[in-house]
Backbone:
């Protein structure tokens, strides 16, 4: 059984704060690490896919880093806005299966 | 809009019944993935089809089955339903490098 852990489980920040959360995953047989943004009543939307150790990806105020040797990825949001409120999911692809294993997500609430 | 469609959006049924959920992938995508989102669980992978063939299986119960048709749409069949099967069921299309999720079907078993 592959374990993908996300922390914290939930986070409340004020508008303008920068924040980050963690995804940890098995460090062996790594293929890719995904980050998704999931707003209430919508479907998960892909943010990043990272495949190489040391990868850094950026989209606007959101960025992510990847360390496959130690099995973790960080997602950063700079200057959080209320519209950033969502659950952020990471998903690991690795091992011998053609499947993504998802973490339980970090629920971010940004207060105006 | 991801280009993945799912019907119905909501389904309410009784224990012991059977339902069919339908998914149409994005144009050009050969793979369909089914996921279950229950209350305290993350997205749980159920099953993947690629061009009509089963490719990978996850935590799918024996009471559940799926198939992918020649036009690439897929159906997830859930039978002998139990209260614990109440969940949000997503399908996605794409690949292990990029998946696009449909809007989901919310199943309530009463």
Residues:
């Amino acid at each position: 059984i592959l374990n993908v852990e996300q922390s914290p489980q939930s986070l409340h920040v004020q508008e303008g704060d920068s924040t980050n959360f963690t995804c940890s995953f098995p460090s062996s047989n790594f293929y890719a690490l995904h980050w998704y943004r999931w707003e209430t009543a919508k479907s998960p939307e892909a943010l990043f896919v990272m495949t190489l150790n040391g990868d850094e990806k950026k989209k606007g105020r959101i960025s992510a880093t990847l360390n496959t040797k130690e099995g973790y990825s960080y997602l950063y949001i700079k200057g959080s806005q209320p519209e950033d409120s969502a659950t952020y999911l990471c998903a690991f692809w690795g091992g011998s299966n053609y499947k993504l294993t998802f973490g339980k997500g970090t629920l971010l609430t940004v207060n105006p | 809009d991801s280009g993945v469609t799912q019907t119905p959006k909501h389904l309410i049924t009784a224990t012991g019944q059977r339902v069919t959920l339908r998914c149409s992938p994005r144009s050009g995508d050969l793979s369909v993935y089914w996921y279950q989102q229950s209350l305290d669980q993350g997205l749980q992978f159920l099953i993947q089809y690629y061009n009509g063939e089963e490719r990978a299986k996850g935590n799918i119960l024996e009471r559940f089955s799926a198939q992918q048709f020649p036009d690439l749409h897929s159906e997830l069949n859930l039978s002998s339903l139990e209260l614990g099967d109440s969940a949000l069921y997503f399908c996605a299309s794409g690949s292990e490098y990029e998946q696009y999720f449909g809007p989901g079907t919310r199943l309530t078993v009463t």
Q: What stands out?
A: The interface with chain B takes residues 4, 31-32, 34, 42-46, 49, 51, 89, 91, 93, 97-105 of chain A (CB under 8 Å). The radius of gyration of chain A is 14 Å. The CA atoms of residues 26 and 71 of chain A lie 6 Å apart.
